[in-house]
Amino acid sequence: MSSGDVAGVSLGNPLFERAAPDNPEQLIFLDTTLRDGEQSPGVALSTEDKLAIAGQLARLRVDVIEAGFPYSSPGDFAAVRAIAEQVEGPVIAGLSRCFEADVRATADALRPAARARIHVFIGTSPIHREGQLRMTQAQVYERAVSMTRLARSLCDDVEFSPMDASRTEPEYLADVVSGCIEAGAATINLPDTVGYATPEEWRQLIDWLYQRVPALGGVTLSVHCHNDLGLATANSLASIRSGARQVETCVNGIGERAGNASLEEVAMAVKLHPEVYGVAAQLDHSQLYRTSRMVSQLTGMLVQANKAVVGANAFAHHSGIHQDGMLKDRRTFEIMEPGEVGAGSTLVLGKLSGRHALRERLAQLGYRLDDEELKRAFVRFKDLADRKREVTDRDLEAIVSDQRQEGAEAFHLEHLQVSCGTSLRPTATVRVLLPEGQSREAVAIGDGPIDASFRAIDSLIQIEGELEEFAVQAITAGIDAVGEVTVRLRHEGRISSGHGADTDIIVAAAKAYVHALNRVIAAQGTAPRVAPERMGTERVGTELAR
Ligand code: KIV
Ligand code: ZN
Known about the structure:
It contains 17 helices and 19 strands. Helix 16 (449-460) runs parallel beside helix 17 (505-524). Strand 8 (220-225), helix 8 (232-241) and strand 9 (246-249) form a beta-alpha-beta unit. The radius of gyration is 25 Å and the shape is globular. The strands form five sheets. The protein has an eight-stranded parallel β-barrel with strand order 2-3-4-5-6-7-8-9, surrounded by seven helices. The chain has a four-stranded mixed β-sheet with strand order 13-14-15-19. It folds into four domains: 24-299, Aldolase class I (TIM Barrel), CATH 3.20.20.70; 315-344, no CATH class; 345-406; 408-542, Alpha-isopropylmalate synthase LeuA, regulatory domain (Double Stranded RNA Binding Domain, 2-Layer Sandwich), CATH 3.30.160.270. By secondary structure, the protein is of the alpha/beta class. Helices cover 38% and strands 21% of the residues. 3-methyl-2-oxobutanoic acid (KIV) binds at residues 36, 95, 121, 161, 163, 191, 193, 224, 226.
């Protein structure tokens, strides 16, 4: 069917005549959410979070997962090792500076992976060489080539990145690229590290490099575009037209500063325009929305409502003319269907659904729960189904993510009761369960019900944190929607995010706060400081003011 076939399912432009190629070349997606994405200010993922995201990236069928930067910290090393051990399917890559100890640590962390890649990089631009590395052109060249060679001796698959390629002298860039290809790099990645390139210039540089370095034709050319000018997706797509066959992306476009090229945007642009890009990815696009939600929940980085492909409004049609068009023919105002990226809110289960149906649906969504986990999820599901007529996939995701969160908690929210109203001072009673199994309770008054709940929790678990961000979103539509709260706490200079979901928004807020505090405690690696128990009572007191 041609891209202009209106009677069929095609949503393309009827004026566009070029046919899609019969045998599109493969476009490799290297996802760096766990490495560059984790470099987003305020994001700190635990090994469990990283494993969950890596598992989801495997379900999305990205080709390469850049799992971390093993030499940068013992935590990063452990996370890369765990992903290399446990995540099957994609190639697992680790980033390494051009130092022998870095390269060896990366090879070590990646050892258990069925397919591993060492990604070595060094700054090549004048400002990086002189301003940061204090090295000459010749020294940077020598280091790049020798460390690529070392990496190649330790791993069959090596990628080399001349950092800040877009601001590097082209002739020198060509020399470094040639040297690293000769030293064994099978992928040459050009980073637009500071998001300075424009699509036209970037293409010119790539076209010129292909001419100047014939050996580039024998390896995979990759691009890694940052979004400082909002051009990361455009630059990545332009590079594909000039021959790049790997793109480095992050889910939701997160990453250093303004972020990286957004995986979902590049993926859908390429999918919808085979006639322009002539490539195909092996992604399962129906996993895009779920991946986006998981990354947003675990990083605490909210997705803006108008974000392309995965934003809450991406498929919402507001104006009368648009709604009218949509009712008559979806293609009038929709270039892709929500279901194509997994954003359709499918009604799945109800009050009468049994445990078997729950297990089946969760498995279809990619969650494999053991019997004990399923038992607990079923109790939550029944509770939700009693309160809510329709239980959707989004609700099930919230149940599982809540449950998994609890498994890793140092203390747990056992009970929350709030009274508030037009003539009442908002008062919250909170009971938490501590690691040794005792419960502690506190009562607090606040400016509002959420403030009162947070104060009551604070009076029990004593962590000097500053609430930096508090955001509420509805996961599902309707009056009985599950609400989702994200909080970001600053504690001793480090940000921890928390996430909670519930049909009651105050309960969701308290869960999110408890989640963030638990992450602070986990990062500290020590037991939580709990307020001393009061004589003769289980309650620790009434906090009237913070
Ligand atoms: O932006 C960048 O240059 C990078 C490299 C390490 C690939 O992230
Ligand atoms: Zn980067």
